[in-house]
C-alpha cells in the first residue's frame, strides 16, 4: 500500500485546495480529503510547504504534521492488522485528532491576546463544556447548529441570564473566526439568527427628590461628605454621567488664559469646567 499526502483536483469557493490522502495499490486507488485546505503555492514537486507569511502559519504546520503522522499510522496498522481497503478508508476518514477548543484557546489563541482576554475566551469554552456536558468540544461540534441550540437550551434551563448567554455566543463566534483565520476550520462560523435574543434595554425612570439633596448637604459632617455630594450633584446636572467622565474635565479660568471664543462667552471672574475631548464645553 502506498499513501501520499497530496493536493486534491478541485479548489473550494475560497480558492484553496484540500490536502488529501492518495491511497494506491495494484488495481486500487482512493482519494480521501482531510480538513486542511491550502493555497496552490503551498503544493510543490517536493511536497507541501507552509508559507511563513500565511496567517496562522504555525497552526497550519501543526495540522500538516498531524496529517503526516496519521499517514504513517495508517500504513503501519494496514500491514500489521491485515486491514481491508474499507478498514483503511474508515480509519483515514475519521480525521485527525486536532486541538480541542480548550487546547486551542490555551495554546494558540492566548499567544495573540493579553492575559485578561485570553482567560475570558478560555472561560467561554469552559462554560460551553459545562452546559453541553462534554469533557471536550471540538470545532466541528460548534459548527453544528444543533450544538448551539443545545447550549442555549441547557444554559437557560440552568438559570443563566439571556444577556450572559448572548455574550458567550458572540465570544464563541470570535473564537471560531480566529480558528478559521488560523486554518483550523475550512468554513466560517455563522451564528444562527435565533441564537442571540434581543434584550429590552428600557430602564425604569427614577424620580429624584430635590429636598433629599438639600437635606443631605445640611447633614454633611466633614469635607469628604461635601466633596462626594458635590460630585454627585455635578453628575446629575450633566445628565447622568459616569464618575469616570470626571477625569476628562479640566478647570479653566482667566488666569490660564481664555481662548477668543471663551473670552466672549465666559465671565473672567469665575472658574469653569471644560470637557477636554470636545471643542465645545
Can you lay out the helices and strands and say which pair or pack?
Elements: E1 2-11, E2 17-25, E3 28-38, E4 43-44, E5 47-48, H1 57-80, H2 85-93, H3 101-107, H4 115-132, H5 139-142, H6 145-157, H7 162-181, H8 210-218, H9 223-237, E6 249-252, H10 260-265, E7 272-275
Antiparallel strand pairs: 1-2, 2-3, 4-5, 6-7
Helix pairs in contact: 1-2, 3-4, 4-7
Summarize, please.
Helices cover 44% and strands 15% of the residues. The chain is of the alpha+beta class and 281 residues long. A three-stranded antiparallel sheet has the order 1-2-3, with helices on one face. It has a two-stranded antiparallel sheet with strand order 4-5.
Q: Key features?
A:
single chain, alpha+beta, 281 residues
SSE run: EEEEEHHHHHHHHHEHE
N- and C-termini, Cα separation: 79 Å
Average per-residue pLDDT, rounded, comes to: 83
Looking across the biggest beta sheet, what order are the strands in? Answer: 1-2-3
Amino acid at each position: 500500500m502506498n499513501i501520499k499526502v497530496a493536493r486534491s483536483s478541485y479548489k473550494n469557493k475560497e480558492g484553496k485546495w484540500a490536502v488529501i490522502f492518495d491511497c494506491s495499490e495494484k488495481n486500487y486507488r482512493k482519494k480521501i480529503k482531510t480538513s486542511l485546505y491550502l493555497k496552490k503555492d503551498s503544493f510543490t514537486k517536493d511536497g507541501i510547504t507552509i508559507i511563513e507569511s500565511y496567517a496562522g502559519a504555525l497552526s497550519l504546520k501543526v495540522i500538516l504534521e498531524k496529517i503526516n503522522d496519521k499517514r504513517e499510522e495508517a500504513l503501519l496498522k494496514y500491514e500489521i492488522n491485515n486491514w481491508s481497503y474499507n478498514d483503511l478508508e474508515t480509519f483515514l476518514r475519521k480525521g485527525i485528532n486536532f486541538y480541542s477548543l480548550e487546547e486551542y484557546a490555551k495554546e494558540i489563541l492566548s499567544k495573540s491576546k493579553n492575559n485578561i482576554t485570553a482567560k475570558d475566551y478560555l472561560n467561554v469554552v469552559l462554560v460551553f463544556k459545562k452546559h453541553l456536558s462534554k469533557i471536550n468540544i471540538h470545532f466541528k461540534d460548534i459548527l453544528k447548529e444543533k450544538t448551539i441550540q443545545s447550549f442555549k437550551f441547557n444554559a437557560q434551563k440552568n438559570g443563566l441570564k439571556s444577556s450572559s448567554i448572548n455574550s458567550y455566543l458572540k465570544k464563541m463566534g470570535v473564537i471560531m473566526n480566529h480558528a478559521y483565520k488560523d486554518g483550523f476550520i475550512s468554513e466560517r462560523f455563522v451564528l444562527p439568527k435565533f441564537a442571540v435574543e434581543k434584550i429590552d434595554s428600557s430602564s425604569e425612570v427614577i424620580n429624584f427628590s430635590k429636598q433629599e439633596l438639600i437635606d443631605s448637604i445640611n447633614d454633611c459632617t466633614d469635607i469628604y461628605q461635601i466633596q462626594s455630594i458635590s460630585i454627585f450633584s455635578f453628575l446629575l446636572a450633566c445628565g447622568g454621567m459616569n464618575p469616570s467622565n470626571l477625569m476628562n474635565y479640566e478647570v479653566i479660568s482667566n488666569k490660564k488664559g481664555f481662548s477668543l471664543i471663551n473670552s466672549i462667552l465666559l465671565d473672567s471672574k469665575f472658574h469653569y469646567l471644560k470637557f477636554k475631548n470636545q471643542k465645545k464645553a
